[in-house]
Design goal:
The protein has 183 residues and is an alpha+beta fold. It has helices at 24-33, 40-53, 65-72, 105-108, 146-181, and strands at 12-20, 75-80, 84-91, 117-129, 132-143. Strand 4 (117-129) and strand 5 form a beta hairpin. Helix 1 packs across helix 5 and helix 2 (40-53) packs antiparallel against helix 5 (146-181).
Amino acid sequence: MRIDEFMPSWDVRERFEHRVKAPADVVMRVAYDFDMQSIFLIRAIVNARKFILGGTKEVRRPIGLVEETRSLGWGTLVEEPGRLLICGAVCRPWFGDVTFTAIHPKEFASFAEPDLVKIVWTLEAEEIEPKVTRFAHEVRAIATDEEARRKFLRYWRWARFGIVAIRLLLLPSIKKRSESQEI
């Protein structure tokens, strides 16, 4: 898997897959353009996390998933239109107002500046039969040193419930919208 080029080992990994009755390019277009915070429960989870960690409440406009993540500082590590997107950044996720910093793809795997967490995530669409796609989303994270790992794993113990819930709400919504475009 291409994600292994950037993070062959990790502290946490979550992978979700769905079978979608739509062509891969349709699924990816919907995923790119989907405003994840248009789902009330996702918006509530994002705002609850900010509240718990003392982050700044922000007013946002509707924006597609990929455009939003890029505007937050995520970098593109690999992009194969209609098929694969791998994004990555470093951050301190235990902060209320997280700052994501992109790292050049050639430097991402070896990047080791202390007190940070490297995160990669994917959107993957593979047409497994005509107009049927295996759509996957994977997230991996690894701390750059032991102190960051301690902070990150303490944060992850409670934050993972919201992060996983977001994926469990988002991916079926992308599936439903993709399939409705094929009717």
